[in-house]
Structures are given as C-alpha cells and as structure tokens.
UniProtKB/TrEMBL annotation:
<dbReference type="InterPro" id="IPR003837">
    <property type="entry name" value="GatC"/>
</dbReference>
<dbReference type="InterPro" id="IPR036113">
    <property type="entry name" value="Asp/Glu-ADT_sf_sub_c"/>
</dbReference>
<keyword id="KW-0648">Protein biosynthesis</keyword>
<dbReference type="Pfam" id="PF02686">
    <property type="entry name" value="GatC"/>
</dbReference>
<keyword id="KW-0436">Ligase</keyword>
<comment type="subunit">
    <text>Heterotrimer of A, B and C subunits.</text>
</comment>
<comment type="function">
    <text>Allows the formation of correctly charged Asn-tRNA(Asn) or Gln-tRNA(Gln) through the transamidation of misacylated Asp-tRNA(Asn) or Glu-tRNA(Gln) in organisms which lack either or both of asparaginyl-tRNA or glutaminyl-tRNA synthetases. The reaction takes place in the presence of glutamine and ATP through an activated phospho-Asp-tRNA(Asn) or phospho-Glu-tRNA(Gln).</text>
</comment>
<keyword id="KW-0547">Nucleotide-binding</keyword>
<protein>
    <recommendedName>
        <fullName>Aspartyl/glutamyl-tRNA(Asn/Gln) amidotransferase subunit C</fullName>
        <ecNumber>6.3.5.-</ecNumber>
    </recommendedName>
</protein>
<comment type="similarity">
    <text>Belongs to the GatC family.</text>
</comment>
<keyword id="KW-0067">ATP-binding</keyword>
C-alpha cells in the first residue's frame, strides 16, 4: 500500500492537523515508512509465542473483587473544597 500526498492531506484533515501543502509529500513518505514497518511486523512468525504484559517476566498484581460497604463518605468529602449535605458542591454552569 502506498500513500500519496492527497491521501496524506485527507488523513491530516481527519486528524484535525493543519499541514502546509509543501509538507504533504514528506508526510506521505513518513506514512509509507510507517506502513513498511507494519508490513515487516506482519512477516514475523509468532506462532506459539504467548502474549506478554511486559518485557520482564512478572505476574500482574491482583486483588479479590469484593463488595464493600464503603463508609468513607466523610473521608472522601474532606478533600473537597466545598461539600454540602453529603455531596460535592460545584458552581452552577447552566443558566
């Protein structure tokens, strides 16, 4: 697959990025380089390779999924700049 400057302009527009017309050929070339790297990754044989979460072998920390009663409303609201009647109080934003 090859990206031309017109396609690069369309991608930039979709991404809401302003790109000057004289920079479009260089951007298209960068896209083509990236696509080339992706094609190289597709050629790698990963059959039998387990997915990993890190380059170092370690297990993720897990905790039990237990329902608690909470009971920390006062503690949580103590951090609020303004709390009223057990809730966070915020300025009115809708007229």
């Amino acid at each position: 697959m090859s990206i031309d400057p017109e396609t690069a302009a369309r991608v930039a527009k979709l991404a809401r990025i302003r790109v000057d017309a004289d920079a479009l050929p260089a951007l298209a070339q960068e896209f083509n380089t990236i696509l080339g790297f992706i094609e190289q990754l597709g050629e790698v044989d990963v059959e039998g390779v387990e997915p990993m979460t890190s380059v170092t072998p370690m297990r993720l920390k897990r905790r039990k999924d237990e329902v608690t009663a909470g009971g920390m409303q006062d503690k949580v609201l103590s951090n609020a700049p303004d709390a009223r009647e057990g809730f966070f109080a915020v300025p009115k934003v809708v007229e």
